[in-house]
Amino acid sequence: MAASVHLVAETQRDAGFRADIGGNFPLDENVIAALPKGTSIISADSFGSSAWTVTARVNVVSLDCAPKSYFLKCATEDAGKIMMEGEFHAMNELYKTYPSLVPRPHAWGKFRLPSLNTYFFLSDFIDMSNRLPDPVRLCSRIAELHRNSVSPTGQFGFHVPTCHGKFPQYVYWDSKWASFFKKLLQDALRLDLQSNGPWPELERISDRILTMVIPRLLGALQEDGRDIKPCLIHGDLWEGNIGTAYDNNEIFIFDSSAYYAHNEMEIGMWRCVRHQINAKIFTRQYLREFPISEPIEEWDDRNRIYCVKMNIIHSAHHKGDIVRQTAYEDMCYLVNKYAPWPDTELKSNQEINR
C-alpha cells in the first residue's frame, strides 16, 4: 500500500480531471459526490505527508456562498479500505460524544476510478498550529471526553476495526478489560514479530506477560467489588495528532484509532520518551481531571504496560527501532514484580540468553 498510495494523484491526473477545479490534486467523482449538495469546488491541493496515505485540502464555496475547506485522506487496496472506514467511524464516534473536540467527519467511500483500488475519508478542514497544546486545556477536554462517553454495548472494544497507524487493531467487544487488553497486545506482538523477526527472549517474556501479568495487574481493576467504565479514547494521542486552531485557539484531536477502553490506556502513549507529550505536566494534569483507578498503588505499572503496547506497535511500523528493546525491558520489570520466574525456569531463560 505504501508504494501504490502515492500514485493516486498521478493516476487521477492521467485519467483526466475537471478543468474548472484548480490546484494540483485531481478529485475523483465519488469524492465530489460526497460533498454537501450545492457546493462549488474552487481547488484541491496536496496537503501534508504520510507514509501510507495521501492527503489534500479541498477549498469550496458552500450553498450559502461562504468559503469552506475540507480535508481529504486517501489510501489504497484492502488495507486502505479498513483504514478509511475505521477512521470515519472513529472520528464519528468522537464527534457524536464531543463535537467541538474533533473536525466534523463527513464521509468515507471508494473512488469511482477503477485503475487503483482507492478509498477516501472526508472531514472538515481546520487550519491548526502543531505547537504543543496547553496542558490544562488539553487534559480538561480529554478527561471530559472520557467521562461523558458511553459504550453502546457496555463493553470494551469498537463496532468496526480501527487502525493504529497502518495496522488494524483487535477491538472485538469484551466485557473484561484484562481479556480485551490481552488480545489487543497479543495482536500487536504478532505484527511486531512479522516485521522484526524472531527474538526468543522477547517471545518468552511476552508469553508470561499475556498469561500471568495481565490477568493479575489488569484483572484487579474489576475484582473485589471494583469496576471500571469503558471510556471512548482517541487511541493514538500524541502531539502529532493534536492541533490548536488559528482562528479561535480551540484544541482539536484527529487521526483517531478510537475504541472503548480503560481511560488510563489513553495516556500510556504519554510515557513514550520519543514524544514531546511525554513531559510529566501532561500526565499530572490529566490525573487531576480524572481520578486514578483502584488499586491506586498499581497506577504506574498499568501505565507501563499500556506504554508497552504503544511501543510494540511502533516497533512493528519501524523495523529495527530501539523501542522494541524498551518494551522488552518494561515487560521484564513487570514480570519480575508480578510473575517472577521459578528457579528452574530462570535457569532455562539464562541458557537462552547465552
Question: Would you kindly provide a written description of the structure presented here, covering whatever features stand out?
Answer:
The protein has helices at residues 2-5, 8-14, 29-34, 77-97, 135-148, 177-196, 200-217, 280-289, 299-317, 323-338, 343-353, and strands spanning 40-46, 54-61, 67-76, 105-110, 118-124, 128-129, 163-164, 167-168, 231-233, 242-245, 251-253, 259-261. It has 354 residues and is α+β, with helices and mostly antiparallel strands. The strands form four sheets. A five-stranded antiparallel β-sheet has the order 1-2-3-5-4. It has a three-stranded antiparallel β-sheet with strand order 6-10-11, with helices on one face. It is globular, with a radius of gyration of 22 Å. The model has no long low-confidence stretch (mean pLDDT 93).
